């Protein structure tokens, strides 16, 4: 069962913080080292000071980035830089953005999601997690006794029940946050604390299947933290604060939900394409700017990749779909038909490209620039994964290859915090 709960969010006090653009941040896992330094210097109250601190050479078990984050968070609360709502609510969240010249609106809301044991849960991941990342986020959560960032889940709401509640009862009220980020995405947040309307939102989501888009590590941390805290409680009632995780919900049936492709940059790749000709028809593309256009067109009916090298631009078209079952034995039909799986099996594994020699990016210009600068031999341009593919693979209990999806826009960090103690 998918149960949601309102909560008393902690968020920036606009009376103390005049420029929200200087304090909110992207999620920690998309911030480079250079961007981390820039955000730290942007404001002493930038959210990265608690969510993504620096390691220092003198750190030990008692003094480290997690203890510093706890101290900083406590100071912000004491100074009313961040304040906590007095009444539980959910927080409607609208993002307005442009993609390829078109305007999109993605609506969602932030609330608590009740955690359940794996067998009973209606939450379905689609990516594997890495132990070092889970360990880092666990230590931060344990130090602050808080969820600093949301997990991001999608659910089906074909009749737009939640959005209609927003349009009829919430949009006319004043937002508590309205800020544009550096990608010119407008982020606006409203609070809803009316008990009757909260029940309607709960009713629209209860028992729905939830698919994790972003935040797989945060979800695993929440489950492990729940298990650790539960072991200390003599008579748990299931409603302790650690039984919930702060979550952003959005409608998977909405046009506003965009999944961008994650392209592959390969440091070393053979000049000869002979190995590829066994499985792919190879078409030359005269202009580099035509490559993504032709790729999108071809990808409607066949498995196709763009290949960018200093020797030219090409489309790689899988010769026959029957090759998939002939050469690939592991995984469901949906998993084997993922472009990322096919590329790995028919190209990377056969050329023996180690995973550490692959760079992932959503930015086609970065692919081409690194190849042109002789920092990589080849770039593989991908088509985006469809939400139906993600759903099918998650329901199968499978995990996609690394860095297969990039949900856009990201949910800003620093909009809300769930303080458990």
Question: If you had to describe this structure to a student in words, what would you say it looks like?
Answer:
- This protein folds into two domains: 4-257 and 409-419, no CATH class; 263-381, Conserved hypothetical protein from pyrococcus furiosus pfu- 392566-001, domain 2 (2-Layer Sandwich), CATH 3.30.1760.
- The protein is built from 14 helices and 21 strands.
- The protein has helices at residues 33-42, 48-51, 65-78, 131-144, 161-170, 195-205, 216-230, 274-277, 291-298, 322-327, 333-336, 339-351, 364-372, 387-395; strands at residues 4-5, 10-12, 82-84, 90-99, 102-114, 123-124, 146-147, 151-155, 177-180, 186-192, 210-214, 244-251, 258-261, 263-266, 280-285, 304-309, 312-318, 358-361, 378-381, 405-408, 418-419.
- The protein is of the alpha+beta class.
- 31% of the residues lie in helices and 25% in strands.
- The model has no long low-confidence stretch (mean pLDDT 94).
Give a short synopsis of this structure.
The protein is α+β, with helices and mostly antiparallel strands. Helix content is 31%, strand content 25%.
Keywords:
421 residues, alpha+beta, Conserved hypothetical protein from pyrococcus furiosus pfu- 392566-001, domain 2, 9-stranded mixed sheet, 6-stranded antiparallel sheet, 14 helices, 25% strand, globular
Strand content: 15-25%
Q: Specify the number of helices.
A: 14
Mean pLDDT comes to: 94
- Can you summarize the main beta sheet? 9 strands, mixed
Domains (count):
2
